[in-house]
Amino acid sequence: MGRTDAQKPAFYWAAVAGAAEHDGIKPDDVMIAISGNAPMDWSFGRGDALYASALRSALA
Asked: Can you give the pTM of this predicted structure?
């Protein structure tokens, strides 16, 4: 899931270059953080993790 470690620096550079060129943002003022985001990281209500019931069924 996501991008490889080799792809991430290219993304950082492109994002900073684009912000500087189009929005006049100084490259030193840009911070980028990438965080993993799996289905189990989400809950859309009642405190149930997304796909938690499917996971419980698979493990049973």
From this structure: 0.56
